[in-house]
Amino acid sequence: MSAIFNFQSLLTVILLLICTCAYIRALAPKLLDKNKSGILGIFWKCARIGERKSPWVACCCVMMAFSILFMQ
Prior knowledge:
Layout: H1 7-27, H2 29-33, H3 41-52, H4 54-71
């Protein structure tokens, strides 16, 4: 089943995208900072969410991990 049609998979993909973008921006900020608009601006926005809301994103990742490991 596609991640678009399964809500839990969609949340997992979004969380992984946010975490990955924040990690890439921490390693190489120029990769994401030059694309603040357009379709590649989505990655910059995800990196900003990951940086500013990192305790909440981390909590959501832990809850998602427990959900995937113990409820499926």
